[in-house]
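Methods — Computational structure assignment.
A single polypeptide chain was analysed. Its primary sequence is given first, followed by the predicted tertiary structure written as structure tokens.
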Amino acid sequence: YGVETGLSSDPIMNWQIAELDNRSILSSSDAHSGPKIGREATVFVPTMKQFNPLRQSSNEVNNLTISFTYQDIVDAIKQNPNGKLKIGYTIEFFPEEGKYHWSGHRACNIKYTPDDVVKNGKTCPVCHQTLTIGVENQIRDRSTRIITVDKLRLIKNSAGMTFVYDPEKKRRPFVSLVPLLEVLTEINEGSATKALEKYNRLVNIASEFDILLRKPCAEINTLGGEKLAQAIQIIRNRKVYINPGYDGVFGTVKIFNEPVDSNKTELTSVEEKQPTLFKLT
């Protein structure tokens, strides 16, 4: 009835596999530590017609009360039309941050995009060993269709949050987030102490999801300053900088500064990339 995307893929990658067409797409966070909990999630919403997750205000969402059971969650995953709940959308980690998103050989500083692998093969041009093949290439090998960025449907809600839909809008949408503590660390120039202090102050005022997903940027400006409001808006617009991981090397996501890439291989443009709206380095 459903498939969990894991941290290594997002719904777009799964939409390209025909065998998953009739399955619900779920996202769940890892639980290695407290800060990691919730960086991916599945949002269940009431099936009542008056509830629209794209239009509902922050206060309306917080004040909504509904009684439900585990069976209601099961019904939502099974897409039961008579169920009390349905999947509204999923919250996604940027899969490019994973250690094996693109293909390559880190010992020789070789990083290949999926197109590079098709063009140049799976052998390291330096040492001639087999490359570690990344998740994007493995998805491409299993894909029955390719969804390019220009085919996606992007809809913003009143808070400026971008919801990503498949071309036919047959599947539930998703949003991509950067955890609040990571956002604060970047805008505080890497100072974990300052970031944690500001994080604790902010989450005593509003929940992390409320800040990342729902609060108007003008209110975020008041709560956390102009830089935080700018950062949240960039994330909501899907305009972060991505340097994908490969062969055991973690990828990086930056909001204001492009990550430094020492790799000698030219990376793809946004049009060539697995369909997302990121600035790639």
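Note: The radius of gyration is 20 Å.
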